[in-house]
Design brief:
The structure is a single chain. It is built from 13 helices and 11 strands. The chain is α/β, with parallel strands linked by helices. It is globular, with a radius of gyration of 19 Å. Bound molecules: coenzyme A. The site of coenzyme A (COA) has 16 residues, from α5 and α6.
Length: 387
Protein backbone atom coordinates (compact mmCIF):
# COMPACT_ATOMS: atom_id res chain seq x y z
CA UNK A 1 0.00 0.00 0.00
CA UNK A 2 1.20 3.52 -0.79
CA UNK A 3 1.05 6.33 1.76
CA UNK A 4 -1.50 9.02 0.80
CA UNK A 5 -1.36 12.79 1.28
CA UNK A 6 -3.93 15.58 1.22
CA UNK A 7 -2.59 18.36 -1.01
CA UNK A 8 -5.66 20.56 -1.39
CA UNK A 9 -8.71 21.50 0.68
CA UNK A 10 -11.94 23.40 0.06
CA UNK A 11 -15.01 24.07 2.17
CA UNK A 12 -18.03 26.32 1.72
CA UNK A 13 -19.54 28.36 4.49
CA UNK A 14 -22.03 26.23 6.44
CA UNK A 15 -25.58 27.35 7.23
CA UNK A 16 -28.91 28.03 5.58
CA UNK A 17 -27.67 28.80 2.07
CA UNK A 18 -30.90 30.00 0.45
CA UNK A 19 -28.96 31.70 -2.34
CA UNK A 20 -27.01 28.60 -3.37
CA UNK A 21 -28.11 25.36 -4.99
CA UNK A 22 -26.76 21.86 -4.28
CA UNK A 23 -24.76 22.21 -7.50
CA UNK A 24 -23.35 25.61 -6.53
CA UNK A 25 -22.14 24.20 -3.21
CA UNK A 26 -20.18 21.23 -4.51
CA UNK A 27 -18.70 23.27 -7.37
CA UNK A 28 -17.55 25.93 -4.88
CA UNK A 29 -15.88 23.42 -2.53
CA UNK A 30 -14.34 21.43 -5.40
CA UNK A 31 -12.89 24.50 -7.13
CA UNK A 32 -11.36 25.69 -3.83
CA UNK A 33 -9.70 22.29 -3.32
CA UNK A 34 -8.37 22.19 -6.89
CA UNK A 35 -6.99 25.73 -6.63
CA UNK A 36 -5.38 24.92 -3.28
CA UNK A 37 -3.70 21.84 -4.79
CA UNK A 38 -2.82 23.75 -7.97
CA UNK A 39 -4.37 21.00 -10.11
CA UNK A 40 -6.75 21.32 -13.01
CA UNK A 41 -9.91 19.27 -13.47
CA UNK A 42 -8.14 17.46 -16.32
CA UNK A 43 -5.71 15.90 -13.81
CA UNK A 44 -8.45 14.35 -11.65
CA UNK A 45 -8.62 10.58 -12.13
CA UNK A 46 -11.51 9.70 -9.82
CA UNK A 47 -14.11 11.35 -7.59
CA UNK A 48 -15.86 10.06 -4.45
CA UNK A 49 -18.81 12.12 -3.23
CA UNK A 50 -20.33 11.59 0.21
CA UNK A 51 -24.04 12.34 0.28
CA UNK A 52 -26.66 10.96 2.62
CA UNK A 53 -30.07 11.83 1.35
CA UNK A 54 -30.40 14.02 -1.73
CA UNK A 55 -33.27 11.75 -2.79
CA UNK A 56 -35.40 13.01 0.10
CA UNK A 57 -33.96 16.52 0.49
CA UNK A 58 -33.94 17.38 -3.24
CA UNK A 59 -35.65 14.51 -5.08
CA UNK A 60 -32.32 14.07 -6.86
CA UNK A 61 -30.50 10.74 -7.03
CA UNK A 62 -27.55 9.67 -9.20
CA UNK A 63 -25.46 12.25 -7.43
CA UNK A 64 -22.10 10.81 -8.55
CA UNK A 65 -22.93 11.56 -12.16
CA UNK A 66 -24.46 14.95 -11.28
CA UNK A 67 -21.32 16.09 -9.47
CA UNK A 68 -19.04 14.89 -12.28
CA UNK A 69 -21.25 16.56 -14.88
CA UNK A 70 -21.58 19.98 -13.23
CA UNK A 71 -17.92 19.97 -12.15
CA UNK A 72 -16.89 19.56 -15.79
CA UNK A 73 -15.36 16.14 -15.19
CA UNK A 74 -17.42 14.31 -17.80
CA UNK A 75 -15.08 15.65 -20.50
CA UNK A 76 -12.66 12.90 -19.43
CA UNK A 77 -15.41 10.52 -18.34
CA UNK A 78 -13.89 10.54 -14.84
CA UNK A 79 -15.27 7.70 -12.68
CA UNK A 80 -17.48 9.33 -10.05
CA UNK A 81 -18.97 7.39 -7.15
CA UNK A 82 -21.55 8.46 -4.59
CA UNK A 83 -20.76 7.11 -1.13
CA UNK A 84 -23.53 6.77 1.47
CA UNK A 85 -23.25 5.88 5.15
CA UNK A 86 -25.75 8.32 6.69
CA UNK A 87 -23.90 11.05 8.65
CA UNK A 88 -20.60 9.19 8.03
CA UNK A 89 -20.96 9.52 4.23
CA UNK A 90 -18.22 12.19 4.08
CA UNK A 91 -15.77 10.22 6.20
CA UNK A 92 -16.40 7.18 4.07
CA UNK A 93 -15.92 9.16 0.84
CA UNK A 94 -12.55 10.23 2.21
CA UNK A 95 -11.63 6.66 3.14
CA UNK A 96 -12.75 5.43 -0.31
CA UNK A 97 -10.46 7.99 -1.97
CA UNK A 98 -7.57 7.03 0.31
CA UNK A 99 -8.00 3.34 -0.61
CA UNK A 100 -8.12 4.21 -4.33
CA UNK A 101 -4.81 6.10 -4.10
CA UNK A 102 -3.12 3.73 -1.62
CA UNK A 103 -3.90 0.73 -3.81
CA UNK A 104 -2.30 2.33 -6.86
CA UNK A 105 -5.53 2.41 -8.85
CA UNK A 106 -5.47 6.21 -9.15
CA UNK A 107 -2.96 9.00 -8.47
CA UNK A 108 -5.04 12.19 -8.23
CA UNK A 109 -8.42 11.75 -6.55
CA UNK A 110 -10.97 14.17 -5.12
CA UNK A 111 -13.04 13.12 -2.09
CA UNK A 112 -15.94 15.41 -1.34
CA UNK A 113 -19.05 15.63 0.80
CA UNK A 114 -22.24 17.57 0.15
CA UNK A 115 -25.69 18.00 1.66
CA UNK A 116 -28.44 20.57 1.11
CA UNK A 117 -30.89 20.08 3.97
CA UNK A 118 -32.75 23.36 4.42
CA UNK A 119 -34.87 23.31 1.26
CA UNK A 120 -37.43 21.08 3.01
CA UNK A 121 -39.43 21.74 6.18
CA UNK A 122 -38.34 20.56 9.63
CA UNK A 123 -40.62 17.49 9.62
CA UNK A 124 -39.28 16.21 6.32
CA UNK A 125 -35.69 16.85 7.40
CA UNK A 126 -36.30 14.96 10.64
CA UNK A 127 -37.81 12.06 8.68
CA UNK A 128 -34.88 12.01 6.23
CA UNK A 129 -32.46 11.81 9.16
CA UNK A 130 -34.55 9.08 10.82
CA UNK A 131 -33.86 6.93 7.74
CA UNK A 132 -30.34 6.49 9.16
CA UNK A 133 -31.90 4.53 12.02
CA UNK A 134 -33.67 1.18 11.67
CA UNK A 135 -36.87 2.19 9.88
CA UNK A 136 -38.86 -0.86 11.04
CA UNK A 137 -37.75 -1.05 14.68
CA UNK A 138 -36.93 2.58 15.52
CA UNK A 139 -38.13 5.28 13.11
CA UNK A 140 -41.49 3.67 12.33
CA UNK A 141 -42.40 3.70 16.01
CA UNK A 142 -41.52 7.36 16.41
CA UNK A 143 -37.83 7.37 17.34
CA UNK A 144 -36.12 10.49 16.03
CA UNK A 145 -32.37 11.12 16.21
CA UNK A 146 -32.69 13.52 19.12
CA UNK A 147 -34.87 10.82 20.77
CA UNK A 148 -32.30 8.05 20.26
CA UNK A 149 -29.39 10.17 21.55
CA UNK A 150 -31.58 11.31 24.46
CA UNK A 151 -31.85 7.67 25.55
CA UNK A 152 -28.06 7.38 25.39
CA UNK A 153 -27.73 10.58 27.42
CA UNK A 154 -30.14 9.37 30.12
CA UNK A 155 -28.30 6.03 30.36
CA UNK A 156 -24.92 7.83 30.59
CA UNK A 157 -26.23 10.14 33.32
CA UNK A 158 -27.58 7.12 35.22
CA UNK A 159 -24.46 4.94 34.83
CA UNK A 160 -21.71 7.53 35.29
CA UNK A 161 -23.37 10.48 37.01
CA UNK A 162 -22.88 12.72 33.96
CA UNK A 163 -24.65 16.00 34.71
CA UNK A 164 -26.85 18.42 32.79
CA UNK A 165 -24.12 21.08 33.14
CA UNK A 166 -21.43 18.78 31.75
CA UNK A 167 -23.55 18.16 28.65
CA UNK A 168 -24.18 21.89 28.30
CA UNK A 169 -20.46 22.67 28.54
CA UNK A 170 -19.85 20.73 25.30
CA UNK A 171 -22.13 23.20 23.50
CA UNK A 172 -20.63 26.21 25.30
CA UNK A 173 -17.10 25.17 24.23
CA UNK A 174 -18.11 24.37 20.65
CA UNK A 175 -19.99 27.67 20.22
CA UNK A 176 -16.90 29.45 21.58
CA UNK A 177 -14.71 27.66 19.01
CA UNK A 178 -17.28 28.31 16.27
CA UNK A 179 -17.21 32.03 17.06
CA UNK A 180 -13.64 32.00 15.71
CA UNK A 181 -14.48 30.03 12.54
CA UNK A 182 -15.62 32.12 9.55
CA UNK A 183 -17.32 29.03 8.06
CA UNK A 184 -19.44 28.24 11.10
CA UNK A 185 -23.25 28.30 11.01
CA UNK A 186 -23.43 29.67 14.59
CA UNK A 187 -20.81 32.20 15.68
CA UNK A 188 -22.52 33.30 18.90
CA UNK A 189 -20.93 32.53 22.25
CA UNK A 190 -23.30 31.01 24.79
CA UNK A 191 -23.35 30.08 28.47
CA UNK A 192 -24.49 26.98 30.34
CA UNK A 193 -27.69 28.94 31.17
CA UNK A 194 -28.37 29.41 27.44
CA UNK A 195 -28.32 25.64 26.97
CA UNK A 196 -30.28 24.57 30.06
CA UNK A 197 -32.97 27.21 29.44
CA UNK A 198 -33.39 26.48 25.71
CA UNK A 199 -36.50 24.62 24.47
CA UNK A 200 -36.69 20.91 25.26
CA UNK A 201 -36.26 18.70 22.16
CA UNK A 202 -36.05 15.17 23.63
CA UNK A 203 -35.50 14.98 27.39
CA UNK A 204 -32.76 15.64 28.55
CA UNK A 205 -31.56 17.16 25.24
CA UNK A 206 -32.49 20.78 24.55
CA UNK A 207 -32.16 22.92 21.42
CA UNK A 208 -28.55 23.88 22.22
CA UNK A 209 -27.60 20.22 22.82
CA UNK A 210 -28.39 19.51 19.14
CA UNK A 211 -26.46 20.01 15.93
CA UNK A 212 -28.55 22.04 13.45
CA UNK A 213 -29.95 21.43 9.96
CA UNK A 214 -27.31 22.72 7.54
CA UNK A 215 -26.29 23.20 3.91
CA UNK A 216 -22.63 22.86 2.93
CA UNK A 217 -19.92 21.06 1.00
CA UNK A 218 -16.26 20.20 1.49
CA UNK A 219 -13.58 18.58 -0.67
CA UNK A 220 -9.98 17.38 -0.46
CA UNK A 221 -7.46 16.39 -3.15
CA UNK A 222 -5.55 13.15 -2.49
CA UNK A 223 -2.31 11.99 -4.13
CA UNK A 224 0.39 9.41 -3.34
CA UNK A 225 2.68 10.80 -0.61
CA UNK A 226 5.66 10.31 -2.92
CA UNK A 227 4.18 12.87 -5.35
CA UNK A 228 2.81 15.31 -2.76
CA UNK A 229 5.54 17.93 -3.11
CA UNK A 230 4.63 18.34 -6.82
CA UNK A 231 1.42 19.97 -5.60
CA UNK A 232 2.10 21.70 -2.29
CA UNK A 233 4.79 22.67 0.19
CA UNK A 234 2.56 21.60 3.08
CA UNK A 235 1.23 18.09 2.43
CA UNK A 236 -0.65 16.43 5.25
CA UNK A 237 -0.18 12.68 5.41
CA UNK A 238 -2.98 10.21 6.09
CA UNK A 239 -1.52 7.78 8.60
CA UNK A 240 -4.68 5.72 9.08
CA UNK A 241 -8.14 5.38 7.54
CA UNK A 242 -10.18 2.95 9.63
CA UNK A 243 -13.83 1.97 9.60
CA UNK A 244 -16.08 -0.23 11.74
CA UNK A 245 -19.73 -1.30 11.65
CA UNK A 246 -22.21 -2.32 14.33
CA UNK A 247 -25.92 -3.08 14.56
CA UNK A 248 -27.96 -0.26 13.03
CA UNK A 249 -30.48 -0.19 15.92
CA UNK A 250 -29.73 0.74 19.50
CA UNK A 251 -31.65 -2.18 21.05
CA UNK A 252 -29.20 -4.69 19.54
CA UNK A 253 -26.14 -2.97 21.05
CA UNK A 254 -24.00 -4.26 23.92
CA UNK A 255 -24.30 -0.88 25.65
CA UNK A 256 -26.27 2.37 25.40
CA UNK A 257 -23.42 4.39 26.87
CA UNK A 258 -20.63 3.45 24.42
CA UNK A 259 -20.44 3.33 20.65
CA UNK A 260 -18.45 0.13 20.17
CA UNK A 261 -17.75 0.88 16.49
CA UNK A 262 -15.88 4.00 17.65
CA UNK A 263 -13.66 1.95 19.94
CA UNK A 264 -12.99 -0.64 17.23
CA UNK A 265 -12.32 1.92 14.46
CA UNK A 266 -9.99 3.86 16.78
CA UNK A 267 -8.12 0.70 17.82
CA UNK A 268 -7.69 -0.19 14.13
CA UNK A 269 -6.46 3.32 13.31
CA UNK A 270 -3.96 3.47 16.19
CA UNK A 271 -2.70 -0.02 15.28
CA UNK A 272 -2.04 1.19 11.71
CA UNK A 273 -0.07 4.22 12.91
CA UNK A 274 1.60 2.51 15.90
CA UNK A 275 0.96 5.82 17.73
CA UNK A 276 -0.24 6.22 21.31
CA UNK A 277 -3.45 8.19 21.99
CA UNK A 278 -1.29 10.78 23.78
CA UNK A 279 0.32 11.76 20.45
CA UNK A 280 -2.97 13.24 19.13
CA UNK A 281 -2.72 17.04 19.40
CA UNK A 282 -6.22 17.90 18.13
CA UNK A 283 -9.39 16.02 17.16
CA UNK A 284 -12.63 16.69 15.33
CA UNK A 285 -15.25 14.30 16.74
CA UNK A 286 -18.89 13.64 15.90
CA UNK A 287 -20.83 15.84 18.35
CA UNK A 288 -24.23 15.55 16.67
CA UNK A 289 -25.59 15.94 20.21
CA UNK A 290 -23.66 17.04 23.30
CA UNK A 291 -23.78 13.50 24.74
CA UNK A 292 -22.19 12.21 21.50
CA UNK A 293 -19.02 14.26 22.12
CA UNK A 294 -18.74 12.99 25.69
CA UNK A 295 -19.13 9.37 24.54
CA UNK A 296 -16.71 9.95 21.63
CA UNK A 297 -13.84 11.26 23.75
CA UNK A 298 -14.28 8.26 26.07
CA UNK A 299 -14.70 5.62 23.34
CA UNK A 300 -11.73 7.00 21.35
CA UNK A 301 -9.65 6.37 24.49
CA UNK A 302 -8.78 9.99 25.33
CA UNK A 303 -10.56 9.71 28.71
CA UNK A 304 -11.70 6.84 30.94
CA UNK A 305 -15.33 5.77 30.61
CA UNK A 306 -17.41 8.21 32.68
CA UNK A 307 -14.63 10.83 32.80
CA UNK A 308 -15.71 12.68 29.63
CA UNK A 309 -18.19 15.00 31.37
CA UNK A 310 -15.85 16.06 34.22
CA UNK A 311 -12.97 16.54 31.73
CA UNK A 312 -15.18 18.80 29.61
CA UNK A 313 -16.21 20.96 32.58
CA UNK A 314 -12.54 21.14 33.65
CA UNK A 315 -11.59 22.63 30.25
CA UNK A 316 -9.44 19.68 29.19
CA UNK A 317 -11.12 19.57 25.76
CA UNK A 318 -10.91 23.33 25.10
CA UNK A 319 -8.28 24.90 22.83
CA UNK A 320 -5.26 25.09 25.14
CA UNK A 321 -6.48 22.09 27.17
CA UNK A 322 -5.08 18.55 27.36
CA UNK A 323 -6.67 17.51 24.04
CA UNK A 324 -8.54 20.20 22.10
CA UNK A 325 -11.74 18.72 20.68
CA UNK A 326 -13.69 20.29 17.80
CA UNK A 327 -11.78 23.54 17.27
CA UNK A 328 -13.99 24.13 14.19
CA UNK A 329 -17.01 24.42 16.48
CA UNK A 330 -17.91 20.82 15.72
CA UNK A 331 -21.23 19.72 14.30
CA UNK A 332 -22.93 21.76 17.06
CA UNK A 333 -21.72 25.23 16.07
CA UNK A 334 -19.99 24.85 12.69
CA UNK A 335 -23.07 22.95 11.47
CA UNK A 336 -23.87 19.45 10.24
CA UNK A 337 -24.64 19.09 6.52
CA UNK A 338 -24.68 15.35 7.06
CA UNK A 339 -22.91 14.08 3.91
CA UNK A 340 -20.26 16.83 4.11
CA UNK A 341 -19.32 16.64 7.77
CA UNK A 342 -16.66 13.91 7.56
CA UNK A 343 -14.77 15.79 4.85
CA UNK A 344 -15.10 19.12 6.68
CA UNK A 345 -13.53 17.49 9.73
CA UNK A 346 -10.51 16.57 7.59
CA UNK A 347 -10.37 20.12 6.15
CA UNK A 348 -10.25 21.52 9.71
CA UNK A 349 -7.50 19.12 10.78
CA UNK A 350 -5.45 19.96 7.66
CA UNK A 351 -5.75 23.68 8.49
CA UNK A 352 -4.72 22.97 12.09
CA UNK A 353 -1.69 20.90 11.02
CA UNK A 354 -0.66 23.52 8.45
CA UNK A 355 -0.90 26.19 11.16
CA UNK A 356 -3.57 28.02 9.14
CA UNK A 357 -6.47 27.92 11.62
CA UNK A 358 -6.27 31.57 12.68
CA UNK A 359 -7.72 32.44 16.09
CA UNK A 360 -8.75 28.82 16.74
CA UNK A 361 -5.24 27.45 16.07
CA UNK A 362 -4.06 24.68 18.40
CA UNK A 363 -0.42 25.63 19.03
CA UNK A 364 2.14 23.25 17.56
CA UNK A 365 -0.41 20.71 16.28
CA UNK A 366 1.39 17.91 14.44
CA UNK A 367 -1.00 14.94 14.60
CA UNK A 368 -4.79 15.11 14.36
CA UNK A 369 -7.75 12.74 14.35
CA UNK A 370 -11.20 12.79 12.76
CA UNK A 371 -14.16 10.73 13.99
CA UNK A 372 -17.34 10.50 11.91
CA UNK A 373 -20.42 8.51 12.99
CA UNK A 374 -23.26 7.21 10.82
CA UNK A 375 -26.61 6.99 12.62
CA UNK A 376 -26.23 6.08 16.28
CA UNK A 377 -23.04 4.14 15.54
CA UNK A 378 -23.87 1.63 12.80
CA UNK A 379 -20.87 3.05 10.91
CA UNK A 380 -17.82 4.83 12.30
CA UNK A 381 -14.85 6.16 10.34
CA UNK A 382 -11.64 7.34 12.02
CA UNK A 383 -8.72 9.03 10.23
CA UNK A 384 -5.35 9.99 11.69
CA UNK A 385 -3.47 12.77 9.88
CA UNK A 386 0.04 14.08 10.43
CA UNK A 387 2.28 16.88 9.20
N1 LIG B 1 -28.68 25.00 17.98
C1 LIG B 1 -28.91 26.30 18.26
N2 LIG B 1 -29.89 27.02 17.66
C2 LIG B 1 -30.63 26.39 16.75
C3 LIG B 1 -30.45 25.03 16.42
C4 LIG B 1 -29.43 24.34 17.07
N3 LIG B 1 -29.21 23.05 16.81
N4 LIG B 1 -31.35 24.68 15.47
C5 LIG B 1 -32.09 25.78 15.21
N5 LIG B 1 -31.66 26.81 15.99
C6 LIG B 1 -32.22 28.16 16.07
C7 LIG B 1 -32.46 28.76 14.72
O1 LIG B 1 -31.33 29.52 14.30
C8 LIG B 1 -33.65 29.62 14.98
O2 LIG B 1 -33.22 30.80 15.62
P1 LIG B 1 -33.93 32.22 15.30
O3 LIG B 1 -35.37 32.03 15.70
O4 LIG B 1 -33.17 33.19 16.15
O5 LIG B 1 -33.77 32.43 13.84
C9 LIG B 1 -34.47 28.85 16.00
O6 LIG B 1 -33.50 28.00 16.67
C10 LIG B 1 -35.55 27.98 15.41
O7 LIG B 1 -35.01 27.29 14.30
P2 LIG B 1 -35.78 26.15 13.57
O8 LIG B 1 -35.04 25.83 12.32
O9 LIG B 1 -37.24 26.47 13.48
O10 LIG B 1 -35.58 24.93 14.60
P3 LIG B 1 -36.36 23.58 14.61
O11 LIG B 1 -37.14 23.54 15.86
O12 LIG B 1 -37.07 23.32 13.32
O13 LIG B 1 -35.16 22.52 14.69
C11 LIG B 1 -33.88 20.95 15.92
C12 LIG B 1 -34.38 22.39 15.83
C13 LIG B 1 -32.97 20.80 17.11
C14 LIG B 1 -35.08 20.00 16.12
C15 LIG B 1 -33.14 20.60 14.60
O14 LIG B 1 -32.04 21.46 14.47
C16 LIG B 1 -32.66 19.16 14.58
O15 LIG B 1 -33.41 18.25 14.25
N6 LIG B 1 -31.39 18.92 14.91
C17 LIG B 1 -30.84 17.57 14.91
C18 LIG B 1 -30.28 17.21 13.57
C19 LIG B 1 -29.89 15.78 13.51
O16 LIG B 1 -30.52 14.89 14.07
N7 LIG B 1 -28.83 15.47 12.77
C20 LIG B 1 -28.32 14.14 12.60
C21 LIG B 1 -27.61 13.74 13.81
S1 LIG B 1 -26.87 12.13 13.70
Amino acid sequence: MREVAIVGIGCTKFGEMWDKSFRDLFIEAGLMALADARVSGAQIEALYGGNMSSGIFLEQEHVGALIADYSGLTANNVPSTRVEAACASGGLALRSGVIAVASGYHDVVISAGIEKMTDVGAEKAMDALAAAADREWEAAVGATFPGLYAMMARAHMHEFGTTREQLAQVAVKNHYNGSMNPRAQFRNRITIETVVNSPLVADPLRLFDCSPITDGAAAVVLVPAARAKEFTDTPIYIKAAAQASDSISLHDRRSLTSIDATTVAADRAFKMTKLQRSKIDVAEVHDCFTIAEIMAIEDLGFFEKGAGGPATIAGETAIGGKIPINPSGGLKACGHPVGATGVKQAVEIVEQLRGDAGKRQVDGAEVGLTHNVGGTGGTVVVHILAR
